Input
Amino acid sequence: MEQLSFRSEPDEQADDGPARFARVAVERGVDVEGLTYREGDTPLEPGDRVEVPLGRGNTPTGGVVIETGGPELLAGFDPERAKRVLRRTGRVLSGPMIELARWISRYYATPMGMVVASMVPVAVKQGVGVRTKSVLRRVEGATEPDRLPPAAGRAWAAIRAMDASCFPVEPADLVARCGLSNAGPLNRLVREGLLERAEVEHVRVFGDGTDALIEADQSVPTLTETQRAVVEGIDDATQRAPFGVHLIRGVTGSGKTEVYIRLIERTLARGRGAIVLVPEIALTPQTAGRFVARLGGEGGVEVMHSGLSASARHKAWARLASGASRVAVGARSAVFAPVENPGLIIVDEEHDTSYKQDQLPRYNARDVAIKRAQIENAHAVLGSATPSLESWHNAAGERPRYRLWELPHRVAGRLPRVRIVSPMQNEPGPGGDGSNGDRRGEAGRGEARSLFGGTIGIGPVLARALEETLDAGGQAILLLNRRGFASYVACPSPSCGWSLGCRACDARMVVHRAGARPGQHAPGGWLRCHHCLAEAKIPEKCPVCGVRLRLVGLGIQRVERELAERFGLVAGT
Output
């Protein structure tokens, strides 16, 4: 697919006049406030991306103009010694985004150049996917000739009836719209001065990543009274004050996402854009698909995540910068999305640590989102079931700075019933305590006495629940935070109690089934220390009393084996 880029066309030569200078944040982190250069033949404005000579070797280096002016920018430096900007490649940052970059640089003590470098994707700076194509434009106010050939006359009549927003247009598209069989009549209109040709840049994308989105239900659910109160309250606040921060504390399943969507819909209706930040792990195809399904027709939604190709990332950036799309949904870096005139910035799961950038420039996207909302005269909405300590203090402290909203109830009603059972517990039998019911528990205990035999991992209660779920065509998730097959090897004799520890660090060695180190250990399995990574064979008998050893504890390998043997499933991550 193809999309017009926001990258500008070549600028005209500037008129001769007083020397002009530009302060450039060089993307090398060599200076906190940027370096000053003399403008070249092309006039520059703050936000332009340029290439400048750097160092003794005058190495061409990228940067962003953050300020322009006269010799006063030199602060007494000899103007004749100022180097010239090599070239301008396009506008990449708006005025508010430059102000945000200055704040990040001061607040997080980071050179300005490193900040602006992180705000613009590499794909945009490198022009990935940018191609030039020929388009046609209608010449407004052109003098019509007295006579035109019949085909050209019919084409011109159709072109005059088109809205100005239809131009520029590719020749092939205009041929189809005018019902022509070839471009001959359009060429005649160009010669008559009624149409003109132009070369524009666009971003060409092969596989934009939207195929991965899961089509979501477009039906609009009915809001609960609590949801409606939150939506109306925040919406009213956005109209009363230009800036504000709201914290929505809502339990899991309380419908926070639906509240976000309703607020975005109202923001788009007022002609403003929106940004939605979600943790990378939560940016699933289902989540992104829900925003696209509900908001894609109103303002266009661009989903920005690490799985996009470079050209797709460039296309999304270009569409947002040009105003073709007005909603950005993404992870941490989406806080810098070039949404035009944003009115709402949402940070879902605001407590999540993935919002913190651990490389220079180090920043917390939640705090950057709040600052951007303040600069852009927008409102920031933070959502979480377990708010961070600082957000909770700002919302519920003695001097609250945020507005607190509560969603205490699940939309679907009560939470699912939770049962805590032992792996060997049976369903209650005639006696009511499980003792006279199914005897598979005791069988399991007997089987567990062999090293790699038995079905101790999945007890009768869990097995029955899995069977019912699978028979109904459902799916199940089993969670177990234990690597290997068993936790350790021990002697079952009460008078002994020996267990095998690591000879290097004294930690217990974990049992793994054969396969990970084929040929290195005895058949059946081997031992590994997860602290120092030492490995050993499994002894056949207890070295103290000679009793056959026994495996203790569950590991994910044992559960995987039982799923395969008992239910014909192969699973596990």
